[in-house]
Amino acid sequence: MVRINFAEAFPEGQKAMYGFARAVHQSGLEDSLIQLVLTRASQINGCAWCLDMHTRDAMKAGEQPIRLHLLHAWREAPLYNERERAALALTESMTLIAESKRVPDDIYNAAAAQFSERELAALMLAIVEINTWNRLAITAEKSPVLA
Amino acid sequence: MTNRIKLYEAFPEGLRAMGGVRTAVDDSGLETSLIELVDARASQINGCAFCLNMHVASALKHGENEMRLLVLPAWRETTWFTERERAALALTEAMTLIADGHVPDAVWEAAAEEFEERDLAALMLAISQINAWNRLQVATEAPPRLE
What we know:
- The complex is a heterodimer of chains A (about 150) and B (about 150).
- Chain A has helices at about 5-10, 10-25, 30-45, 50-60, 65-70, 80-95, 95-100, 105-115, 115-140.
- Chain A is an all-alpha fold and about 150 residues long.
- The radius of gyration of chain A is 15 Å and the shape is globular.
- Chain B has about 150 residues and is mainly α.
- Chain B has one domain (about 15-140): Up-down Bundle (AhpD-like).
- At the A-B interface, helix 2, helix 6 and helix 9 of A face helix 1, helix 2, helix 6 and helix 9 of B.
């Protein structure tokens, strides 16, 4: 039972969020990486709508299902390159920011080593973008349809 | 002094787009005093010095009572906040710590009772947005602009 239809209740807010999402997706950061980041954050926050949408989008774009399944344990799975690993560590650190109230130097530096400044900024924005969508969808109890 | 990236320099279009979301919230009609309380509370939980400094200063400039800000983490145990503010603060905490327990029905219902749909959606976006800014500023070690 959906609690609220956010887009209907506050269309300017939805429009502004779409503008933000567009800027992130046009940043130059590779789409496959963005999808991994969006999926991982959605796993942590437990957003059904987002998990459904982003895993389907990722697979439609050619992602291997096993790389999505094993995202929960990416550290132990030899399926992700250094760039992806750095991005995933940053995703987890920023998503769970209230726990430590900082992004440790080793995580930041590993990301800074893999990404140009612009890419790193875009990556951070992608992480906060999905954290925003997760919060809106979870709060609204937006539930996906099983395809 | 940090050597972490400055977001505005690294990816100006992205930050401008984030600003667009902030503008939508500010122009939504939701009262400024409430948005400031929400911003302060989320920033306390996420440990963002830059944001906390900025929003405390802004709240005080808009006439907020300093003691309400100082005792804000314990708002439940005071009689200092209106029912509307209490509902917003409870929603702020639940949405900020979204990975922990989502938004319980009681929290949602209290908010839905105090806020009509558009305000409620704007409040959801305000809470999500401060969570976004907190993460960006903590990740880039943005120093608080102390007077």
